[in-house]
Amino acid sequence: MTSARGIVAPAIVAQRLCDLLLQFPAAAFGGVQWRMLTKKYEERYSTQIKIESMGHSSPIAAATALLWDVLRVVDSSDPQNPLLGVDDAVVLSPHPGCMGSWPSLFRALCAAVEKKLCTWDTDNTRYGGWQPSSRSQHVAFTIETIVTDNLACQL
Question: Do the beta carbons of residue 92 and residue 148 sit within 8 Å?
Answer without folding.
Answer: no
